Amino acid sequence: MRKLSKVAALVCAALSMPAVAQTIEGTVATSQGKPIVGAKVELEGLGLQVLTDAKGNFLFEDVKEGKNEIHVSAQGFTHLHEDVDVLSSTPSKITFTLSKSPIEVIDVIASPIHLSSMESAIPVHVLGGEALRRDQAATLGDSLEQLPGVHTSFHAKVASTPIIRGLSGPRVLIAQNGLDVSDVSRVGPDHAVTSEASTAQQIEVLRGPATLFYGSGAIGGVVNVVDQRVPTSNDTKGEWLLETSSVDKQKLGSFNATIGAGDFAFYADGFFRDSDDYNVPVAPELELEDDDHGHEGEGEGEDKKHGKNFKVANSSEKSSGFTVGTSYLLDNGYVGVSVEQYNREYGIPGHSHEDEEGHGDEEGHEHGEEGHSDEEVFADLEQTKIQFLSKLSVRDSIISGFNTRIGYTDYEHAEVENSEVGTNFKNETFEARVEVIHQSFWGFNGGVSFHYKKSDVEAQGSEAFTPPSETEMFAVALMEERHIGDVLLQFGARTERVTLTADRVLLPSLDAHEHDDRHMDEDGHDHEDGHDHEHEDVHGGDASIIRTFYAEHEFTPVSVSLGALWDFTPGYNLGLSISRSQRAPSASELLSFGPHIGTRTYEVGALFALEQHDGIDEIGLTDEIIDLETASNIDLSFRKTQGHIGFIFNVFYNQVDNYYYQIDTGLFADDGHNHGDEEGHEDEHGGELPVFIFQTDDVILNGFEAQIAWQVNDTFNTTVFSDFVRARLKNGGNLPRTPPFRFGTQLSYETETISAHLDITRYQAQERISAFETETDGYTLVDLHADYTLPYFNESMAVYFKGENLSDTEARVHTSFLKDLAPRPGRNFTVGIKGYF
Questions:
Q1: What is the annotated signal peptide range for this record (predicted)?
Q2: Which residues contact 16 (CB under 8 A, 6 or more apart)?
């Protein structure tokens, strides 16, 4: 028999670690010695976890000899990390004591290393349980806006995306169970996010760069919606709710359920929502002081300013969806698949044209009162999503586990005008991520992630401002953490290859002009990355040249992060995170060229440039290098985790070089619609949109988030919070639509049968604005939520009441593209019933 080489012997030894039949057993209890039932005890680096029984006891068998890291968590308590030495001679017995926490601590699920709001170097917040049910709304951004550091883009209640520390759009990744939602919500503010909060288990928010976990699309943060569509246990459980609201006559119903049969588990969820146009306390359209004629409100009422009959026109919606999933449960994990169908039909309030309902244009010209007053513009959305998820642990090997996520999404939405499809958006995405988790060695826990994503995005129609394109990404990332005494070190690196291609980018004919009617002719120039093709387009005998070209750009974003968490004294810790993240520009940022009614602008991408030749403004292909966006971020956190008072203070500084944003050219272009009156007379400025072009600059964003919670006694809890972001150009000037300074408080009362929460939130006026913005007044919102658990149903059913904007305040969201047309809803009352099993 041939002898093994030294290298082969070492490999065999690494892949065949001998199992030592030792045990770890113990108890989890409160500081008063009472057992904690259902506490989660996890062996880090091994993927093994158990729940404590009715006496607070737990047991691990066949544990390897030596040092093992254990993490213990329970609802309402601080988490605990401790090293346990397993000896070969005797079983290890230990008691873990958890202290009460006034701030709820929930673990992030979709992460290969341990993250929570109190135990991470990077700022994390998880919204789950009853807090999620209280805050859930029809759109994702509105559901999360109560979290410190998170605001909403609020597009007239029918669409919204989260804004994290002043960043949104392509810089904030929105995921479902760790995979991109793959809609087109990051292309325009009027595009809905295809994720439903009412059926979610929890929503995870990572503030600041999260590129190591999710890719360069998360340079500003990530929102991950987690549900149990691929069940991890065969326990029978679920929840349901029914509710109705007054402000928009909304009717909502949802459920989710998990059942099991042997080694198989089955899951199903579903929801429906139907709402009318919503009421507002004032005329929806803001009357500007410098407008000679003013803007007439879209509602009806005797008083121009205040009344009870004002509505935001075309803000109704109907949506429904269902998900079915199944998994096969193994001794070392699970493997499962799910299928989701999501449908939504909603109005687009910002899609109206200037001549509707007698509105004046910006020069004070009146248009015909008939116009398109009966025009209805709405989006008809449909999405099918398939996900394959698995988590498998491995024993007696250098590898401790494999986490696999594979998803396929087929998305389509049509924008319908006057019963005809005006523009159709499509997004077909395939994504796969595999995380290889290694055994703990030299005290390090973590692994390597392999990530692939391919998206085909297409827009066809009169308002398709971005040409069809394909984006392909492949990435490799390393994430590790290690405890050294009282310090937790977290670090990682990620490199990507991103390829953006568009076969036939159209360089359309553009007649743009200033309001002194000085016309500008568009001229195209060859680009070094593409090839021009000329096509003759004949209309009524007049021939014009339409030029197209092939565009291909390849980027290599590299991101690195280093963090440390220091438990410098019991119940307190300091966190520091330093990162450098890069992002490839999106297709819309580079290739846009056309009217974007959702933003009420004519968008031109960064691939083009505005130049002057012989005193004439021209738009052609740019000679500038298309480069990566690079963010250098520092986060400092100070937390108190135990006792009657807890707090989280975060301070951040983020410098983004080569930041892609839009500037106002001072030019105007036709929106592509006919704006003549009934007799066919053309209106000189009726269909104009301001021309905005993407350019790059260096920007600085800095600010803070603060949260303090005081558990007064067993029933009363008080929380105060505040957040602030300053977003400015490095060379002077402000970024547009920056959230204002905000602060608020929540007073909570909870017993076994009754819970009540009073929220008071103050939004200060926003006076730091860009050149094309207007200032926004401050306002205060008062909300109340109350639950009553029905004692006759074994505490498994409750009725609830919500009162929102109880003072019926005029509230205009500065971060919204429709702030002057669609304020927040007025006073709203919601009643509902929910149950658990």
A1: 1-21
A2: 396, 397
Question: Which own/partner contact pairs does 783-789 have at CB distance under 8 Å and 24+ positions apart?
Answer: 783/758, 783/759, 784/756, 784/757, 784/758, 784/759, 785/134, 785/756, 785/757, 785/759, 786/754, 786/755, 786/756, 786/757, 787/130, 787/754, 787/755, 787/756, 788/753, 788/754, 789/752, 789/753, 789/754
Cβ contacts of 541 within 8 Å, gap of 6 or more: none
| Location of each CATH 2.60.40.1120 domain in the chain | 6-98
* The predicted structure's pLDDT at residue 354: 42
Give pLDDT, residue 176.
95
- Domain 124-836: give its CATH architecture: Beta Barrel (2.40)
Residue 537's pLDDT is: 39
pLDDT digits (tens, 9 = 90+) for 604-653: 889 888 776 666 667 778 888 899 999 999 999 999 988 899 999 999 99
Two structure tokens written together for 602 = 């004519």
Q: Count of residues for the chain?
A: 837
- What is each CA distance from 692 to 262, 512, 595, 661, 665, in whole angstroms? 60, 11, 10, 9, 6
Residue 160: Cβ-neighbour burial (10 angstroms; 0-12, 13-18, 19+): buried
Token pair in block for residue 162: 């989260």
Query: Which distant-in-sequence residues (6+ apart) come within 8 Å of 608 by Cβ?
Result: 593, 619, 620, 621, 622, 693
Dihedral of the alpha carbons of 628, 154, 276, 833, in degrees to the nearest 10: 100
CA-closest candidate to residue 210, choices 617, 635, 804, 540: 635
First-to-last CA distance in the chain? 63
Architecture in CATH of 6-98: Sandwich (2.60)
Strand segments, DSSP code E, in 485-541 are: 487-507, 511-513, 519-521, 532-539
Phi then psi for 621, rounded to 5 degrees? -75, 140
List every span in the chain annotated with CATH 2.40.170.20.
Answer: 124-836
From start to end of 167-207, where are the E strands?
172-176, 179-180, 202-207
Cα distance between residue 760 and residue 717, in whole Å: 14
Closest alpha carbon to 825 in 454, 284, 347, 450: 284
Residue 792: what pLDDT?
Answer: 79
pLDDT at 289: 52
Buried b (16+ CB within 10 A) or exposed e, 427-446: bbbbbbbbbbbbbbeeebbb
Q: How far apart are CA 73 and CA 771, in angstroms?
A: 50
Spans in the chain with pLDDT lower than 50:
1-20, 290-304, 353-374, 517-545, 678, 680-682, 685
Grouping H, G, I as helix, E, B as strand and the rest as coil, residue 287 is: coil
According to the model, what pLDDT value does residue 304 have? 45
Report residue 676 CA to chain centroid gap: 41
Q: Are 153 and 161 in contact (CB under 8 A)?
A: yes
pLDDT, residue 56, reads: 86
